[in-house]
Amino acid sequence: TPAIAALAYHDGEFVPLAEAQVPVTTQALQYGTGVFEGIRAYVQEDGGLAVFRGHDHYRRLLRSSRTLRIEVGHDVPRLCELTAELMRRIGAMSDMYIRPLAYKRALLPGSPPGVQLTGVSDALTINAFRMGSYTDRGGIRVAISSWRRPESVVLPVRAKVTGGYVNNALAVDEARAAGYDDAILLNSRGQVAEASTSNVFAVVRGRLVTPPVTADLLEGITRDTVVTLATDVLGVETVLQDLGRDELCNADEVFLTGTGVEIVPVTEIAGRPVGEGVPGPLTKTLMSTYHDVVRGRDPRYRHWLQAVGPA
Ligand code: PMP
């Protein structure tokens, strides 16, 4: 793979990544008052690069930023264009992961120090790095975390807020220390919420089930993609309903969905095999369908792909 330029979009300019820095006084660093996205760009059949569902990711970024009173300063089309421009300047020709971050920066003159969302300036930065797709990865083993997902009256879990990821990091840390790959977090009612950075689906008595947004989870864009593909391509309706821990552990198939993990089969939960302990048939079909879609091999979903264009 040819070298790519280490660049970021930072404070309104494209700069060398090493120069995209923040002072220690940055409000978001001290209080977790930032919002972010994780977006993927995939090499297409024709060799070009395309961003997958960039508009939907940036719509969610703008929704998240409203919650924290962060002024991103650009609309969705402009954010998509900045992302494509970053890809072109980097010279990206392989699969990429894109990380936009909008955050609270510095107290405005006259603002008293303290935890606050007003009287503070805002900033936007976008960086990107190479990240291959995991098509051939086998199943993963997950723990049920002792950490619960916070209720939305405690933290706005539907917004992708940096500070909230302390909860996710603690869950991952606990799971890894116990020898698992990832953790599934229950919500305050003891129902399945989501995994550390992905949503949860289960095949229960032939039905595809995923928890509703009221289960205190981030409404994943991959979750939406999977619901759409299951209906359109496989003729399987997804049932949005609460999923108990028992139901999950006794499901025929379980898989996680997220931009980073894409669709990954779960073959063991808390030391017990899921089904036969191997990726299930519906999971495998959805995985191959998903990979066709993100690579532009399915004309029905080309509208989800935004070509970056030649450098
Ligand atoms: N839940 C959490 C907590 C996440 O961090 C992510 C990753 N953004 C997801 C779910 C999946 O969301 P998406 O499919 O939009 O990447």
From TrEMBL:
Record family assignment: Belongs to the class-IV pyridoxal-phosphate-dependent aminotransferase family.
Record GO terms (molecular function): branched-chain-amino-acid transaminase activity
Domain of life: Bacteria
EC number(s) per entry: 2.6.1.42
The keyword Transferase appears for this protein: yes
Protein name according to UniProt: Branched-chain-amino-acid aminotransferase
Top EC class for this record: transferase
Biological or metabolic pathway of the protein: Amino-acid biosynthesis; L-leucine biosynthesis; L-leucine from 3-methyl-2-oxobutanoate: step 4/4; Amino-acid biosynthesis; L-valine biosynthesis; L-valine from pyruvate: step 4/4; Amino-acid biosynthesis; L-isoleucine biosynthesis; L-isoleucine from 2-oxobutanoate: step 4/4
Gene coding for it: ilvE
SUPFAM superfamilies: D-aminoacid aminotransferase-like PLP-dependent enzymes (SSF56752)
Catalytic reactions on record: L-leucine + 2-oxoglutarate = 4-methyl-2-oxopentanoate + L-glutamate; L-isoleucine + 2-oxoglutarate = (S)-3-methyl-2-oxopentanoate + L-glutamate; L-valine + 2-oxoglutarate = 3-methyl-2-oxobutanoate + L-glutamate
